[in-house]
Design a protein that fits this description.
- The protein has 195 residues and is mainly alpha-helical.
- Helices cover 55% and strands 0% of the residues.
- The chain has 7 helices and no strands.
- Helix 4 runs antiparallel to helix 6.
- The chain starts with 11 loop residues before the first helix and ends in a 10-residue tail after the last helix.
- The mean pLDDT is 79.
Amino acid sequence: MTELPHRPSLSPQLCFSSGALRDFLRLSRSAVDDTITENLNALVTPSHAGFDPSSTSQRTPASGSRPIGSEACKSFKTAVLFPAWQARTEVLNYCALIAASPDPDDPEATLRVIEEQKNRERVVDERLDPYSSRFVLREPRTRILASLVRQERGVEEIIRNRTWSVVQERCNYSPHDTWQDAMRTCGFDDGSRSN
C-alpha cells in the first residue's frame, strides 16, 4: 500500500513557514491524490495462480476499467485515503486557528508601526507624482497565513472531489455518496465543522 508522508508536528512555526506547510500538503497530495489511478490499479490482482501464457491470446480491458473488490476499496479508504485527508485537514484547521489568534511574536510588527509613522509624516504632492499618495503597509503574517489557508482549502476541495470521483467509478460506489459522507461514515473528520 501507499506510504503516507509523516504529518509534521503542529506548531506556529509550521504554519508561518509557508514553504514547510506547502511541502507537507504537496507531498501528501502527490502520494495519494495525484496517483489515485495507480494506487487503485495496485489493488487489482490480475492473477492468483501465477502467469498464464494463454491469457495473452486475447485482449482484455485495461485494469483501469475493472472494478475493484469492495474489501480492497474499503481497506484503501480507511488505511490510506481518509487518513491522508484527515492529516491535511488537521494541519489546515490548526493553521487557521493560528491565523485567527493574536500574534505577539510577529517580527515585523515594529516595522509596520515605523512605516505607519513615516507615512503620516510624509508630504504628498499629487501634481508632481500622482502615485505619491499610495502607501502599502506590510500585511501581518497572520493575515498572510489566513489567505494561504483559504487558498489551500479551495485546492483541497477540488482535489478531493476529483479523487473521489475516480474512487466512486473504480469501486462501484453510488454517485450520490459524497466524500464528506464517506469520511464521516468511516469515523473521520471531513473538516466541514471548522470551515
